[in-house]
Specification:
Radius of gyration of chain B: 23 Å
Strand order of the largest sheet of chain B: 1-2
Oligomer: heterodimer
Order of helices and strands of chain A: HHEHEHEHEEEHHHEHEHEEHHHHH
Largest interface: A-B, 35 and 29 residues
Structural class of chain B: mainly alpha
Helix content of chain A: 25-40%
Number of domains of chain A: 2
CATH topology of the largest domain in chain A: D-Maltodextrin-Binding Protein, domain 2
Shape of chain B: globular
Structural class of chain A: alpha/beta
CATH topology of the largest domain in chain B: MetI-like fold
CATH class of the largest domain in chain B: Mainly Alpha
Strand content of chain B: under 5%
Shape of chain A: globular
CATH architecture of the largest domain in chain B: Orthogonal Bundle
Largest sheet of chain B: 2 strands, antiparallel
Helix content of chain B: over 70%
Distance between the termini of chain A: 27 Å
CATH superfamily of the largest domain in chain A: Periplasmic binding protein-like II
Order of helices and strands of chain B: HEEHHHHHHHHHHHH
CATH superfamily of the largest domain in chain B: MetI-like
Number of domains of chain B: 2
Largest sheet of chain A: 10 strands, mixed
Strand content of chain A: 15-25%
Number of helices of chain A: 15
Amino acid sequence: MTTLINRGFSRRSVLGAGVALAGTLAMPAVLRAQDKSLKVGVYGGYFKDSFDKNIFPEFTKATGIAVESVAEPTGEAWLVQLEQAAKAGQAPADVSMMSQTSTIKGQATKLWTPLDPAKIRNFGDLLPQFVSKYPDGTIAGIGAVAWYITLVTNTDTYKEAPTSWAALWDPANKDKLGLLALVSNSFLLEVTAKTFMGGTNALDTEEGILKAFEKLAEVKPNVRLWYRDEAQFEQALKSGEIPMGQYYHDVTGLAAADGQPVRSTFPKEGGIQDSGNWVLSRASTKVDEAHAFIDYMSQPAIQGLMSRKVGTAPTLKRAVLDLTAEEFAAVSSEIEPILPRYDLYTTKSDWLNQKWTELIAG
Amino acid sequence: MRRERPQSFADYTPLFFPGLMLVVFFVVPFSTMIAVSFFRRDPTGFYTRDFVFDNYARFLSTFFGGVLGFSLLLAIGVAICCVLIAFPFTYLLTQRPRRVQTLWLVGLLSVLSLSEVIIGFAWSTLLSRTAGITNLFVWLGLMEAPVALLPSVWAVLIGMVYQALPYTILVLYPALIRLDPTLLEAARTLGASPVRAFLNVVTPALRNTLVATVIMVFVFALGSYLLPQILGRPQHWTLSVLITDQAIYQSNMPFAAAMAVFLVLISLALVGLTLMIGRRENAT
């Protein structure tokens, strides 16, 4: 989630010794825990701060494994670093939070140690999109965090909430939209395919993709701002300068709770669900600790805690969660999400990028 | 004072430090970039060492040609606007008492302390429909309803001129303050009006300074990538914006490097051309 990653890198807080020691003193049964530790790579900034504060101390308390969190740089730089370190037998982090696209790219070089589903108690409760598999069916990654990009509107300008992504194409909304500027983070091709072409399978062929581009080109006159920096759009949405667009569901909800005239709507075609996985570097020797970590993070109680404290959408089925209807609606929806075609961004990335840039800047 | 040619090795020593800095901060990074621009892009990873022309070939298209052309025109536009505003302004400034000059220069220097981000957001607010300057016009009865003045190419131009203007003035100031006042006195004695004296005497006397200033502002404006994004539409994005996209978001370093090398070469060629034309005119 670039929105959160870009909020800048935080201090590198090492939870290490202090917390581990406190844990062992409190629970003599896990005295051995002193030498049990795990290095976890997390998106720097907002995510790392929230995890350091709300999640990792709880994990250490429960398992006696000390967590040293490492701030990951944005983009694919972390994948490249892990890859090069693994060639030298090093693991800058044992477990890392990894975007779906990077998870797939890492599979090509077998960078991820396959995970054992038997060691993850709630494996059966995970939603299918949160299990990333190697072509042979072994597990490369398990969903770590997820978030929604939805249709957002200014409530002063739009008294009624729109119901469909088709509102982006409505000629009445000329020069009123703010959309994300990159093909790989706006996922508008998927939105086009789901709204007008019967589903994202329409993007299987290049002809299908070109058709989606053609349909998407009709949106252009309605777009006032193609944004990379979300502060730019958020401000304009709140003031009504740009009254409609795509934005992060949880952030919009927080702004609305603050009294801003904004709302986030899950269109009937679904919100866009983006996510990241937990992956284990093949150079790491801490396979048991890593499984304990992923097992812990995938529990209903922890997923609930993350939804409340970090604002992420749960990776587990709704039925097993302890979230109230209100808490659930703040981060997710039961309308089937639009799932990005991450495979396209690995196999056709340059081609898509070129077509996209020509579409919006041409 | 006569300047002597350096005689011994020791006479060259003052050049070592600037030379070293030039190597460390320019030659090494630029050579690395040239090398990377020939590497092979690996879509699943980063790049592999190689010697291919693919990255340059991809750039040679009407689309990128258009973007490059727009970037150059925009930078030239900014440079000319800046000099047109800054030259008369600086000239009038040098005619003021010392205290007034100091105050103005301090004010201009403080504008330099603003970052590009702050300038961009300030102008986007100032040109917006909800809080912008047109609200003032409506209040004054000049307009019916407030309108948004951005995104547009004019908004981009205004923002970039605002950003580059203090530099322009600070570059022109030393030349104008050192201008021999007797030149003007002679022109006035011979009956020229102040405007005529400025246009026919001051301007030609400082022609080389003006050309150098235009070039400096041009190069400065060419690197701008934030203001076009904040104040413009995608068609107003400069090549620098696309380079950033490739380098940061697409992890396509070879292509980003190729575009950057191309941009540097084209701007060097333009600068060279300007200097050559200037020299030829001076000779005649």
